[in-house]
């Protein structure tokens, strides 16, 4: 999984395609990505099933720069990108990472993420809630 902040001009936002490649395809080659049966390999969180855990990938570049100039006679801006070294890292728990992107506060969005990545003990509650929204009941016969 990966997430980026709301600043469309940030390097994390600019590199979200690289994050998608790393999370969805490059990690597949070493066996650390596995598709959930019946679910897409990649998709937005609202289209994915509830899971207990999701590996978090962060893509950064500390030496990339953007130069912006303004041509006063034409009244236009021009920009150029000097792309440096792109690096990936494990950003830990996607729920905590997303909450940090939201300023460390519980927001409707961060709570939604926490409701989709429920942890090792949250499956029964998530399943019960989902089935209840469909007018059905859940009865657990084993452990969570």
Could you explain how this protein is built, in words?
The chain starts with 10 loop residues before the first helix and ends in an 11-residue tail after the last helix. The chain contains 5 helices and 4 strands. The strands form 2 sheets. Strands 1-4 form a two-stranded antiparallel ribbon. A two-stranded antiparallel ribbon has the order 2-3. The radius of gyration is 20 Å and the shape is elongated. It has helices spanning 11-14, 16-29, 94-101, 108-116, 123-133; strands at 55-60, 65-71, 76-82, 87-93. It is α+β, with helices and mostly antiparallel strands and 144 residues long.
Number of helices: 5
Would you report the number of β strands? 4
Helix/strand/pairing class, anyone? alpha+beta
- Largest sheet, strands/sense/barrel: 2 strands, antiparallel
Distance between the termini: 23 Å
